[in-house]
């Protein structure tokens, strides 16, 4: 008896995983279809071709549960179960007996629908909703054109979708790098209180995780007409916080120092020619605005606003 209970535990756990995946299907399917080129109404009537269970313990439960989920999404009048589609086919000819267990073609699906629908309208789409080890696998095909309308794997926590998005994003990033395309940003910092820092950063995004930003900076104030390099690191878990620094050379101070030395090598120490600016930026939600705070080596501390690739001002691209 104890052995029977232990054997039943994996089946119960799997049933819960499948039940959760069907719940995610009911949530995601209307949104996925209505956001695309096909609506829920355009699928009806739909021919349910397969609701194949993955485990012996779910053989009696899963087909009914899958049909119930599809019925709640598409409506009871929009579904047409094709029991002949799910059964093995036996072909008997003169002196020949053939058993076929492979998938039906779209033409065969159309013929089976014609034989069983009576006076009803022809089926528009075919649906395969099979159980998998992690959840369910969904495929929807247009019977008229053969176009795949939707194909997806769903689990109870949608982890497979998150992993797929990550892999697609990585592939797109590799393609961008192979083309030599750059991700370039323009950040504008306006620190006004308690002291001032106004600068413009032209940065390129790079790295295996795209969390590095480096380039050159131009400052109007702090330092006065400064030019130099900058680097920032993005921390996604911390609200995409950007932490970095700039090393700027004040061009007026540099010229003054050169001419003041009467042709001798200039002495820049302590005259504010070289300035380091340590800065943090926090993007505000999903807007092009952010908060900034900076501390300079010349003693200036400022808090203000950053424009992230914004085009609100005429001098910005």
Write the layout of secondary structure elements.
Elements: H1 2-35, E1 46-50, H2 62-74, E2 79-81, H3 83-86, E3 89-93, E4 96-100, H4 106-116, E5 125-131, E6 135-142, E7 148-155, H5 159-179, E8 183-194, E9 197-206, E10 212-221, E11 226-235, E12 241-250, H6 251-260, E13 274-283, E14 289-296, E15 301-308
Parallel strand pairs: 1-2, 1-5
Antiparallel strand pairs: 3-4, 5-6, 6-7, 8-9, 8-15, 9-10, 10-11, 11-12, 12-13, 13-14, 14-15
Helix pairs in contact: 1-2
Helical segment count: 6
Rg result: 32 Å
Q: What is the SS-derived class?
A: alpha+beta
Morphology call: rod-shaped
Query: What percent of residues adopt helix (DSSP H or I)?
Result: 25-40%
Fraction in beta strands: 35-45%
Largest sheet: 8 strands, antiparallel, barrel
Summarize model confidence as the mean pLDDT. Answer: 80
**Widest beta sheet: strand line-up:** 8-9-10-11-12-13-14-15
In N-to-C order, the SSE pattern is HEHEHEEHEEEHEEEEEHEEE
Number of strand segments: 15
Distance between the termini: 74 Å
Q: Regions with pLDDT < 50 over 5+ consecutive residues?
A: 1-9, 267-271, 312-317
């Amino acid at each position: 008896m104890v052995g029977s209970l232990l054997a039943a535990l994996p089946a119960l756990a799997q049933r819960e995983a499948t039940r959760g995946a069907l719940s995610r299907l009911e949530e995601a399917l209307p949104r996925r279809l209505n956001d695309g080129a096909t609506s829920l109404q355009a699928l009806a009537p739909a021919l349910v071709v397969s609701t194949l269970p993955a485990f012996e313990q779910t053989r009696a439960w899963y087909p009914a549960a899958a049909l119930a989920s599809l019925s709640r999404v598409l409506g009871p009048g929009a579904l047409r179960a094709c029991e002949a589609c799910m059964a093995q086919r036996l072909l008997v000819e003169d002196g020949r007996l053939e058993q076929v267990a492979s998938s039906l073609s779209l033409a065969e699906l159309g013929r089976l629908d014609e034989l069983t629908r009576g006076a009803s309208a022809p089926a528009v789409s075919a649906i395969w909703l099979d159980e998998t080890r992690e959840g369910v696998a969904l495929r929807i095909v247009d019977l008229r054109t053969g176009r795949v309308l939707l194909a997806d794997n769903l689990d109870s926590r949608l982890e497979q979708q998150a992993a797929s998005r990550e892999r697609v994003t990585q592939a797109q990033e590799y393609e961008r790098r192979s083309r030599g395309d750059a991700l370039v940003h323009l950040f504008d910092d306006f620190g006004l209180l308690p002291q001032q820092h106004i600068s413009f950063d032209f940065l390129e995004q790079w790295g295996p995780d795209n969390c590095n930003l480096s380039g050159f900076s131009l400052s109007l104030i702090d330092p006065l007409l400064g030019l130099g390099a900058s680097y920032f690191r993005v921390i996604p878990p911390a609200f995409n916080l950007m932490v970095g620094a700039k090393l700027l050379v004040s061009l007026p101070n540099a010229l003054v120092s050169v001419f003041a030395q009467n042709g001798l090598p200039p002495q820049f120490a302590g005259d504010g020619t070289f300035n380091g600016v340590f800065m943090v930026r926090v993007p505000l939600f999903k807007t092009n605005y952010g908060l900034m705070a900076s501390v300079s080596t010349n003693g200036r501390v400022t808090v203000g606003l950053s424009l992230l690739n914004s085009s609100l001002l005429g001098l910005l691209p």
